[in-house]
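Recap from last week: sequence in, structure out.
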Amino acid sequence: MHPLLPWLLIAVGSYLIGSIPFGYLAGRLCGIDIRTKGSGNIGATNALRVLGNKWGYAVFLFDFLKGWLPVKFALIWSTFAAIDPASAPGALAALGALIGHSFPVWLGFKGGKGIATSAGVIVALFPQAFLFCLGVWLLLFTTTRYVSVASIGASIALPSAVGTLFLLHRTDWLALAVSLVMCALAVWRHRSNIARLRAGTESRFERKKK
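Predicted structure tokens:
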């Protein structure tokens, strides 16, 4: 086996798993194109608004898993292959899954903002940082009712938490680099939300009423 083949399989496999548009598929099962409803996003938040609790939570779970599973499998492989640094395969899987979710080949490279998938990646790759990011998200969401504000805040909190772990020698430089890329990607994907927040036209979260 060529030594680069496992890395190629991780990158391509993670991208393809990440690109599965569960929000879009849930909408189709309900007889609608979710891209034409609500915010037009295929992520869990819009699915919750448009399709209701059952479908919204299901989309969040599957979007979470498509971030968690590729990273977890890659990290398991790294322990058997004695990869140095050990986080390298997980980092590659994380970026592949997030790029797949944000730019899915099946939907013309127009995907979601990647927050649920990022949560899966964080649990798998930075478990010690997860509770901090979750706390920031819950605090901002509770006080503002803006999912976008909570998501951006949690994204910015991620490299802060991983940076602290790095200074304490509890993670490596590659994990810190990945956290910075994840933060930058999440903020960039929320640029339209930032524009609406500045204009005062961003919608606060309200679930679909039965």
